[in-house]
Specification:
Helix 6 links the parallel strand 3 and strand 4. A five-stranded parallel β-sheet has the order 2-3-4-1-5, sandwiched between helices. It is globular and about 110 Å long. The longest helix has 18 residues. It has 921 residues and is mainly alpha-helical.
Length: 921
């Protein structure tokens, strides 16, 4: 190499990349047509990602183009990149809904506010960008996303998943192999490889002014793998003799890692003051030019120091000159010595605002320094207050590294691990726990570390080892800290219930007894889940008679609570407790409150779990369409948060009722595989779904076998709700012993529960086992009880059984009344197995009933149905958008399709039309 220059006066030509350019052109057409699209371009350094972003900008002259570049020095600044992106829109903060405004203002440190779920921050960003795009279609270009802070990256990925009809395009570029953010993985993506040989030769030729030997060109193309940046650097920097084939080529050629070394060598040829300024620019936050130049002044540098770098092509021309290519920034930073980095950081510390000063001081510190560590800890509190949990974790980790005392250092590592857990960065938690463990002082610290390990296992859906792990930590704690012991036992109980028979190292009964014995309510808030957890533990440990009153009291308390506390497994525990007591009203009311609370917090993962549970409430009330909407909305939110959609095994109960055997069998197979793989006990849900399906089909032996698998696991929860089906299946399969066993448990527990659902099922079971005409009164009692609560499928089931009993006694007219009602209900809901069973019975009474077919002329997509239902409830478009975590323009688009499909012209017609078409649930 004979030249130190790395700059070309003009942007490199666009050669090749036809598929990638076509994808970008499609994205731009979508934006111009009023829709939204996201695309991630990723590949090795220098492969042409940034050039494609330039192509997009050149092709979007009619759009508003907004740019953002990730900077390695800013990866720890929570929401820092998002703040830079949204800065032009912040004057519109006042138009945001209150919760969104508070969330975004708090995240950016513009106002004091409690930390918000980043999905609520994302919703605020969604609203701001959508409003701007409504005025002028917009293209956002985000380069080097691997250097975005985690909070900003997650919000931008969230935007990419939620945008739909907003005239807004998002184009991301990410460098592979950096270990950066992986939150964009489920967005549409294109991987860039090196240019094909003909295109690579054409690009190389454009950069060479003299003679280019054919053999040299082939060697350069092959040696660089068609990497465009490497080819262009070679074209500029190789000497004429080398390009002509007279002098030998350098070894190795500058590609991938060698490219960075090439840029290091080029920077090293510059004057010392210029090199120092470059290092300062590579280290300073990119959004604070004033701080940069104050620090430069402290180092004796001026704007003239940048001129040699501009002349060499390392910096761009212009008053706000930046690095010509992001790889040059990385090369400059990685080439610096530790002493040079400390000098630059010290200058930045002196020039920075207080909230950033501590970090620069820490980076300027060589060796332990408790004063700087304390300053970092204080800075971490500011990050946490803004919801910048990944920033908090990084700052605390550095504080721990600078802490001299081992015990205090371990505590800070634990705090950092907890912050990473809150941020969702699970891979970062365990290494910090390993660093902390050797120096943990006392059982309290060890117990906290164990609790964090257990939380990681639970978030990863691996609960089987958690209960034993936490019980050991409780034993280590001893009786001295009952509050800490309860925190561990609460999580152990949840894990034991979820893992069930898959638990290792202990038993559910042992865990439940420990939790039940340790629980003492010393004034927990009314909205706390702790009393409910203790009641479930008491029921498992000491039996139904001891647990039922506690469960009823806990549910009653939650129904009257003003605000429910946030807890990951809250909705699961509420659902199980409601089923255990056959209390559908409490279950529906509390889950509704959780949905409202999590929706308001923007806690989309928790909201997804709430909706899964709420779907079962809708199923028991015959609202299968509403249940399907709950499932669809839940899957939608899981996808929006970046969680893999878990298949549709959650729908097993719905598949059972609707007779979709293939889907049911597939869901059961998935549940069994998941249960074995993760240690989550799903056989209770498997048994429930299979037994309902088989009873509907009249295959009673198969139904009973499914029931027995659940029955044998008592006292774990969810067995009681299946008892009535087990009595019926046992009697009709000819296994009177099994029926009697189930009946005995029903006789014991239903009166203790005392709910209309429980008493209605008890009356039905008594009627089934009755040997005389007394069954008629029992069936009527069952129908009366079940009619008091929203369990329409159970009411229709009792009518079906009553009608069958009447027909066998040749009371055809009376039988027709019950069977017709049952058939019409089951058929209208789509409960095909039970509808067919009722139809056959009706035929036997002499009445003809046609098989119903579903009218699909008015089929709405899940998103359209959700918007339609909310519009029918009286919400405005803006309110629907806020509740659904989408934009107003997306709501308007879905509503326009709803109007067209339903053949209506007014929002006032939506409710009645949904009821007419069966789309309203």
């Amino acid at each position: 190499m004979v030249s130190s220059g790395v700059h070309r006066a003009t942007a490199p030509p666009m050669v090749g990349r036809l598929p990638e350019r076509a994808a970008i052109d499609r994205l731009l057409r979508s934006v111009r047509d009023g829709f939204s699209q996201a695309l991630v371009l990723h590949g090795d350094a220098g492969v042409g990602k940034s050039r494609l972003l330039e192509y997009a900008a050149e092709s979007a002259q009619d759009l508003t183009v907004v740019r953002l570049v990730g900077v390695e020095a800013e990866t720890r600044l929570g929401y820092g990149a998002l703040h830079r992106l949204l800065r032009p829109c912040l004057h519109r903060l006042s138009v945001l809904p209150q919760r969104q405004r508070d969330a975004l203002s708090g995240a950016f440190g513009l106002a004091e506010a409690a930390p918000s779920d980043r999905r609520l921050v994302g919703s605020a960003a969604l609203t701001l960008l959508s409003d701007s795009a409504a005025a002028a279609p917009t293209l956002c270009l985000v380069d080097d996303v691997q250097w975005l802070d985690r909070e900003s990256a997650e919000v931008l990925a969230f935007l990419g998943r939620r945008l739909y009809a907003d005239s807004l395009g998002l184009l991301f570029a990410a460098r592979d192999g950096t270990g950066g953010q992986n939150v964009f993985g489920d967005l549409p993506a294109l991987r860039l490889e090196g240019l094909a040989a003909p295109e690579a030769r054409a690009l190389l030729t454009t950069g060479v002014t003299g003679h280019l030997d054919r053999a040299v060109a082939e060697r350069l193309v092959t040696g660089t793998g068609g990497n465009p940046l490497a080819l262009l650097e070679l074209a500029v920097n190789l000497g004429p003799e080398q390009l002509a084939g007279v002098a030998p080529l350098p070894e190795p050629l500058p590609v991938e890692q060698q490219l960075e070394e090439h840029f290091r060598r080029a920077a090293a040829l510059l004057p010392a003051d210029t090199q120092t300024l470059l290092l300062l620019m590579a280290t300073a936050p990119g959004d604070d030019r004033a701080t940069l130049w104050r620090a430069a002044g402290a180092l004796g540098l001026s704007a003239r120091s940048a001129e040699p770098a501009v002349a060499a092509g390392i910096l761009d021309h212009g008053s706000t000159a930046g690095f010509r290519h992001p790889l040059i920034r990385s090369a400059v930073h990685s080439a610096a010595s530790a002493e040079e980095l400390r000098d630059v950081q010290a200058a930045l510390a002196a020039a920075s605002a207080p909230e950033r000063r501590a970090w620069h001081l820490a980076e300027a510190t060589d060796g332990p320094d408790d004063d700087v560590a304390a300053a970092l800890e204080a800075a971490s509190d500011l990050a946490r207050a803004r919801g910048g949990y990944s920033e908090q974790a990084l700052v605390l980790t550095r504080a721990a590294e600078l802490t001299a005392r081992p015990g205090r250092r371990a505590e800070r590592y634990l705090d950092a691990a907890a912050a990473h857990l809150t941020s969702g960065n699970l891979p970062a938690v365990t290494p910090l726990l390993e660093l902390a463990t050797p120096d943990l002082a006392g059982p309290a610290a060890r117990g906290r570390a164990t609790g964090l390990r257990a939380s990681v296992e639970m978030v990863c859906a691996r609960p089987r080892e958690v209960p034993a792990m936490l019980l050991a930590a409780v034993a280590d704690l001893g009786p001295g800290d009952p509050a800490a012991s309860w925190d561990l036992l609460r999580e152990a109980t949840h894990a034991a219930i979820i893992s069930g028979r898959m638990i290792t190292g202990t038993t559910p009964h042992e865990v439940a007894r420990a939790a039940a014995d340790a629980w003492h309510d010393t004034g927990s808030p009314a909205g706390s889940a702790d009393p409910l957890t203790a009641a479930l533990a008491r029921s498992i440990a000491y039996g139904y008679a001891a647990g039922a009153p506690a469960l009823a009291a806990a549910l009653a308390r939650l129904r009257t609570a003003g605000e429910l506390q946030e807890q990951n497994t809250f909705s699961t525990m509420v659902s199980l407790a409601g089923d255990e007591l056959w209390d559908i009203e409490a279950k529906r009311e509390i889950l509704g409150k959780l949905v409202t609370a999590d929706r308001g917090r923007g806690a989309l993962y928790g909201l997804s779990m709430d909706l899964f549970a709420l779907a079962t409430v809708e199923i028991w009330n015959g609202r299968f369409t509403a249940a399907e909407s709950c499932y669809s909305e839940s899957y939608d939110y899981l996808a929006a948060t970046g969680y893999g959609v878990p298949g549709d095994f959650h729908k097993a109960l719905l598949y059972a009722w609707t007779g979709r055997e293939a889907e049911l069998r597939a869901a059961v197979a998935t549940m069994r595989a998941t249960s074995e793989e993760l240690g989550i006990s799903m056989h209770r849900w498997i048994g429930q779904a299979l037994s309902i399906f088989e009873i509907g089909r009249g295959r009673y032996r198969e139904a009973l076998d499914a029931q027995l698998a659940v029955f044998a696991d008592d006292p774990l929860v969810l067995g009681d709700i299946n008892l009535a089906g087990m009595v019926e299946a046992g009697l009709r399969a000819g296994d009177r012993e099994a029926a009697a066993t189930a009946m005995a448990r029903m006789e014991e527990r239903a009166p203790l529960a005392g709910t209309p659902w429980a008493l209605g099922l008890l009356a039905r079971c008594r009627a089934l086992t009755s040997e005389d005409d007394g069954a008629e009164e029992l069936y009527r009692e069952s129908i009366a009880w079940l009619g008091k609560v929203p369990v329409a499928v159970e009411l229709a089931w009792s009518r079906l059984l009553f009608g069958e009993w009447l027909r066998r006694r040749r009371r055809r007219a009376d039988a027709r009344v019950q069977l017709r009602s049952a058939y019409e209900d089951f058929a209208s809901w789509g409960a095909a197995p039970f509808a067919e069973r009722a139809r056959v019975e009706l035929l036997a009474t002499g009445e003809r009933a046609r098989r119903r077919t579903v009218d699909t002329r008015f089929d709405l997509t899940p998103q359209e149905r959700q918007v339609a239902v909310l519009a029918a409830s009286g919400l405005t478009n803006a309110e629907i958008a806020t509740q659904s975590f989408v934009t107003t323009s997306t709501v308007e688009f879905h509503l326009s399709r709803v109007f067209r499909k339903l053949g209506i012209t007014s929002r006032k017609q939506i409710g009645s039309r949904l009821r007419d078409t069966g789309s309203g649930g």
